[in-house]
Fold:
Amino acid sequence: MKTLSIGLLALASAIGGCTTTGNMERNAGAGAAIGALAGAVIGNNTGGGDAGNGAVIGAVIGGTAGAVRGYSLDQRRDECASARRGPTYRDR
Structure:
């Protein structure tokens, strides 16, 4: 069981390290890695002790939550940038 836990931890670290620089992608990768690790621990410690299914479920939920959070951060950054630029006037 220790081997499986170590393997899942290594996989979660690898998934977290393979992201691009955008907030959405970075947070999705981090959420998936954290979710996979948490899901593996919870799955291992409850009911049937199936860490693999827990890791998959945790990765999906964590990745989705991370992507939503990253998208929100990207939108907020874009709104702040456009507010700093001020209004745009067009010549006719």
User: Anything to note?
Assistant: The mean pLDDT is 74.
